Amino acid sequence: MTSTVPELTLNSGYRIPQLGLGVFLVPQDEAQRVVTDALEVGYRHIDNAAVYRNEEGVGRALAESGIARDELFITTKLWNTEQGSDAPRPALEESLEKLGLDYVDLYLIHWPAPQRDLYVESWQALEQLRDEGLVRSIGVSNFEPEHLDRLAEHSSVIPAVNQVELHPALQQRELRGVQEPRGILTEAWGPLGQAKYALEEMPGLSEIATKHSKTLPQVILRWHIQEGVIVFPKTTKKERLKENFEVFDFELDASDMAAMKAMDQGMRVGTHPNEGNW
Ligand code: NDP
Questions:
Q1: Which atom of ligand 1 is nearest to the CA of 276?
Q2: With a 6 A CB cut-off, is 235 part of the ligand 1 pocket?
Q3: What does the domain layout of the chain look like in residue ranges?
Q4: pTM (2 decimals)?
Q5: What is the CATH number of domain 7-195+220-248?
Q6: Tell me: the pLDDT tens digits for 93-124?
Q7: Residue identifier of the C-alpha nearest atom 13 of ligand 1
Q8: Is the CB of 47 under 6 A from ligand 1?
Q9: Residues near 245 by beta carbon (within 8 Å), at least 6 away in sequence
């Protein structure tokens, strides 16, 4: 594992690099190049999903890098249409084949999809796949407290993470207060707000960036790290891959952290967890 990126310990005992690369909306024919660039910069953690339709490209980059498997941390996710008791196994096997891997480090239920109402069965299927060694740690994504409670009623296995939308305008304090005391780490998707709002307009952000001679995205990513959140910004550009990785040579102070906290507006830029029933 590269020495600059801090690691957190999951409730499974495995360790996860706190900074990685997300590959949502990276086209299949660009995925190999982007992941190769990221590995060159020093990234070792890739956040993928079956529905991103680029697992083969990611897998080719991993294979050709020559980097030892145990230095990599690879996540992929179970798509809604594959939920239930039986479908997760072939879905994971297909992801593994595309990625060219024997196991993934982390497998997530992508959305609770409450209208399908299959996430409890899916969770039990993931437990089995974990027991068989096809995945090291299992977790969830876009789960609200009621979904976490329901899993806890039916299973003693606590999700290693809950991956949710989280950025300065949506800080998820309430949800984090529910999940983190239970041992569920928080992963941030859309950590830069998916470029859907102007970072310059976040009050005080530019001043913090100037103070530390850093860019606005670097300040935001540093804030995630200091919050104890796992983060994997997406970019297809090598310069930005480097920029997003250079967040370990400065530290936000208490007043910076307080100013960041005050940016919370409870503003989603993506789909509400209960609406992701595709
Ligand atoms: P991000 O918040 O990472 O934002 C990505 C956008 O920011 C892109 O438009 C990118 O543009 C731009 N960007 C990245 N770095 C910089 C920079 N340094 N300066 C300026 N612009 C920048 O959004 P994502 O939705 O991609 O979230 C990250 C990851 O989270 C995803 O890739 C995916 O792995 C995961 N995710 C999970 C979801 C879930 O339901 N579980 C939902 C959504 C995302 P460009 O590429 O042109 O550089």
A1: 40
A2: yes
A3: 7-195+220-248
A4: 0.98
A5: 3.20.20.100
A6: 999 999 999 999 999 999 999 999 999 999 99
A7: 235
A8: yes
A9: 4, 19, 41, 42, 43
